[in-house]
Design a protein that fits this description.
Low-confidence stretches: 1-8, 31-51
Order of helices and strands: HHHHHHHHHHHH
Number of domains: 1
Radius of gyration: 31 Å
Shape: globular
Number of strands: 0
Helix content: over 70%
Mean pLDDT: 81
Structural class: mainly alpha
Distance between the termini: 77 Å
Length: 327
């Protein structure tokens, strides 16, 4: 062996194993410490894009949907109470006993005029409160979409026919539910403005705008439209009106997704309310389609045709709106 060569001391096997074990334990402790830091400070470690993604995957939840519904009801109650405090109350015909027809109509017209003030104020407060809630919970997001496609006459006509056909289909169910109060908004010009202009604008802005757009960030198109339709039905309170609103709400929501525009749903909603208001004004609101056709063969033929219309419209909507979402 050369003098330049030096003999290196050999560590005992036990020492090498102990050193290896200490190194492994130290590495494990470091990894556990990193994981603990990540678990306790997860939000701070997320970059802005990741934080937005985290929020979108957890908002809105079931409690958020309930909160938005409560905000709508509370806003309406508060505004109505403030209007009452200012002397703007809705007259009630029932409190007058048995008034003549002329007095009844005057009271209903007065109710329509006052409701045309109270309703838009309460719905504006509801929209602002829900929008603010969404902004505070989620930070940002689309409130509503508008495009020229919303004025497409073919889509509007097709979906309006779908709405009418669907109402015929659910009529047997509506007949077993408590009868709705058709005079809740009054009569006259301003009552028609409330039903045909104010209601479509504010209800679509809230239900198909803020609510549906918020839901679809997490739940996708089909589930979001279902939930938004239920939300739309609940705010109408009365069972028969609520069921009808849920069905119409699904069609409104589908039209919104088809056109990416609230213009289409506002027009459809306005046409639907105008049709219903006309039936009330001309005294046909209490006449069912079955009674209109005498409940004979003609009625069942019309009922079958309406069923075919609904099936074909839903199939077309599924193909153009929901297929990719469900698949």
């Amino acid at each position: 062996m050369s003098d330049r060569e030096q003999i290196q001391p050999v560590e005992p096997v036990e020492q090498r194993e102990e050193a290896h074990e200490e190194t492994a334990q130290r590495d494990e402790a470091q990894r556990e410490g990193a994981w603990e830091d990540e678990a306790t400070d997860e939000v701070e470690m997320l970059d802005p894009e990741a934080l937005d993604s985290y929020k979108h995957h957890h908002f809105p939840g079931a409690l958020d949907i309930v909160a938005m519904a409560l905000l709508l009801f509370v806003s309406q109650i508060v505004v109505s109470a403030l209007c009452m405090a200012c002397g703007l109350t809705l007259p009630n015909v029932a409190e007058l006993g048995q008034p003549d027809i002329e007095t009844t109509m005057q009271i209903e017209v007065l109710k329509g005029e006052r409701f045309a003030i109270i309703y838009p104020l309460s719905m504006l407060a509801a929209f602002l409160s829900i929008w603010l809630y969404v902004r505070l919970r989620d930070g940002k997001g689309v409130v509503a979409r508008f495009s020229r496609k919303g004025f497409n006459p073919n889509i509007i006509l097709t979906y309006f026919i779908w709405i009418v056909a669907a109402q015929v289909l659910i009529e047997p169910l509506l007949e077993i539910l408590p009868e709705a109060d058709n005079g809740g908004t009054g009569r006259g010009f301003w009552a028609s403005i409330t039903a045909i202009v104010f209601a479509p604008f504010f209800e679509e802005l809230i239900c198909r705008g803020v609510v549906l757009e918020t839901l679809r960030r997490r739940w996708g198109k089909f589930v979001s439209v279902i939930i938004a339709s239920l939300f739309f039905g609940i705010i109408h309170i009365e069972p028969a009106v609520a069921v009808s609103a849920i069905v119409a709400g699904f069609i409104f929501g589908t039209a919104y997704l088809r056109t990416s525009s609230l213009f289409s749903t506002m027009i459809l909603h306005s046409l639907n309310n105008a049709f219903a208001f006309a039936l009330i004004v001309f005294g046909f609101s209490d006449i069912s389609f079955a009674e209109l056709f005498g409940g004979g063969v003609e009625y069942y033929v019309v009922y079958a045709l309406c069923a075919l219309v609904c099936i074909s419209c839903f199939a077309e909507a599924f193909r153009k709106v929901y297929r990719k979402d469900i698949a």
